[in-house]
Prior knowledge:
Elements: H1 10-23, H2 32-50, H3 67-71, H4 76-81, H5 83-97, H6 111-117, E1 122-125, E2 128-129, E3 136-137, H7 148-153, H8 155-167, H9 185-192, H10 199-231, E4 240-241, H11 245-254, H12 256-265, H13 267-292, E5 296-301, H14 311-331, E6 335-340, H15 348-351, E7 359-363, H16 368-375, E8 380-383, H17 387-392, H18 395-407, E9 415-416, H19 428-441
Parallel strand pairs: 1-2, 4-5, 5-6, 6-7, 7-8, 8-9
Antiparallel strand pairs: 1-3
Amino acid sequence: MDKKWTEMTPAEKRESRFKKWSAAEGVKFESPDAEAAYKKAIERFRDISLLEKIPDRVPVMALGTFMQTDLYKVTPYEAMYDVDKLLDTHTRFLKDYRPDYGTGPYLIGTGKVFEILDYKQYRWPGHNLPKESGYQYVEAEYMTADEYDAFIDDPSDFWVRTLLPRMCGAFEGLKMINPWTDFWEVVLVTTHMIPFGIPPVQKALQAMLDAGNEAMAWIQKIAAFDAKQNGMGFPGMWGGTSKAPFDILADTLRGTRAIMLDMYRQPKKLEKALERVTPLAISQGVRGADMNGIPTVFIPLHKGADGFMSDEQFKRFYWPSLKETIHGLAEQGIIAWFFCEGGYNTRLEYLKELPKYSSFWLFDRTDIVKAKEAIGANLGIGGNIPAGLMLTGTPESVKAYCKNLIDTVGKGGGYLMSWGTALDEGKADTIHAVIDFTKEYGVYKK
């Protein structure tokens, strides 16, 4: 008799998730070869992340935001406002370049929704930026220094009635609604509904409906592409997304300058906020992995990179909540898939504390040979091809770089070939060089 989910060990949960991912229930494969490629790609990732055996060859992944669209002369603006053009470029990319994994375009989002919401945290192509540009974050204190208590007491209420009106102009009216915890018993039900009769509140609700309709039309096409991508033999790599708790506070709420001041001026409040947001980061990741049937959660790392804070600050403010997030995901059989932008050379000692097979680390500017030595026996690693080399190098120089990676960090398995960041631009000959050379040279001898 099969065990109940709550009775399984983390390893058993992880095994169950991998089986579901590989089973590809409902996927209509184009051919037996496509099905074999799909399952082999998953097997390779399992081999490099769980380190149970050496794969048949080094797997290879092609990371891009607007890279795929750039290769086919589609502007970032078109990618964000014409989903059909966006998906056409991603389909053509898979057929022309044939990496092992698909990296779906859902993280780009749609400019139409951003416009409906009057989204203020980003500038995007055609909206305060040239149509040929990628998007840019707008640094600000979306949560003020004196609002920690309100956030800690009830993050959801703070998000709805305080943060959202600052992030989106269309949500200005949400400041007028009452806390939902006031909605109890017959004597307060009618009065609780009064704000929803006020025009600014109704305008906010209408914006939600309009954005929801637009998002639904968009995600239906994205989902159809994901099904097609799987059927072509390219499994998606990420089941869900989340963030390091410190980055949630530093990126979305306080801003870089303010969070640095908080570490000195109100460190205990910051620590309480990190404790409060950590379960939310875990929950978000688990929900995504459950919904998509893939045992990984994509987590980009920002403020913990070398140079953003001292080792003492990293040890106190960044690492404990991130470590707890990794443990929380691992308890549910999920591998945290880290996108380590910048360098993590001074942080490698901390990664030694992590449970085996709990996470996968894609490095950008980290010394990947030292990373292999530090954590390669317990955790899978990948990346490290410089973006500059991809965009300005020759195929020969790129192949030489890949050969060195395969000969060093690829030795004995546990390595994924990729560049270290998501590219906004693409150079066809160097991308072909990475993928084709890895498939040819990166074969392990049995």
